[in-house]
Design a protein that fits this description.
Mean pLDDT: 91
Shape: globular
Structural class: alpha+beta
Helix content: 10-25%
Number of helices: 7
Strand content: 25-35%
Strand order of the largest sheet: 5-6-2-1-14-13
CATH topology: Deoxyribonuclease I, Chain A
Order of helices and strands: EHHEHEEEEEEEHEHEHHEEE
Radius of gyration: 18 Å
Low-confidence stretches: 57-69
Distance between the termini: 5 Å
CATH architecture: 4-Layer Sandwich
Number of strands: 14
Amino acid sequence: MCYNEHMKVVSYNINGIRASVKLGLDKWIEDFGADVYCFQEVRCGDELARQVLFQEKKQLSLFENFEEKGVLEDYFAFFNCGKISGYAGTLVLTKLKPNEVFYDMGQFWTDDEGRTTTVVFGKVAIVNAYIPNGNSRLEFKMKYLQALNRYLSHLKKSYSVICVGDFNIAHNEIDLTNPKECKNKSVFLPIERQAFSGLLGLGFVDCFRFKNPELVKYSWRSYRSRWDNSYNSWKYRIDYVLASEDLKRNILGCDILELDYSDHLPVVAEFENL
């Protein structure tokens, strides 16, 4: 429905588009050539994010305003950066123009933080979600997860669904380095893990774990651990690509890439015959 043969989807918490682009994120996007990029934690307004990512230079002539475009001209961009400057926000880049784009979760959830963007291609809906951190706002996080559960249930009535994002939850002990020390810490609380199980229970597959049942890989590590090999950073797999069960046979593979544009790492899933 989306692509004749296969589609590559990336989920990546970039922890600030300005900082990540300075490190070369835009060049990586072009070189890697995924079909759909879902970014979380853009951390600036829509207009500024667009200028930073596309390197647009607005120039004033004697007669008119015009824009000189730089990079990523093959992508449609959908910004949902929220109303709080320098905080949260989501962004979707896609080579194929979507049939529809939904912001927030309709009747199920709205916020000022730009946490949810959905793009629809035919009968496939891709949800880009940035689940709140529960360290200071656990109640808010749980309400968001409850709304996401209802929203995905609603979408599944009409679409095959791929839900990606930073969930801020390590589901099982294999998904973090210090499970005993984290049992009372947000990211590994029983209530959070149960909520994630509830999402899977709707009829979703954790693509990475489905394709790599025993593989130990993480999607978050501290910045310091990138340059200090002696630093024993706690690590978590908290970024996911989930696919509805009807797409299970279409999953070609799923991996976590080692990159240095953020404290998170991108999760990449490939699907065929969508």
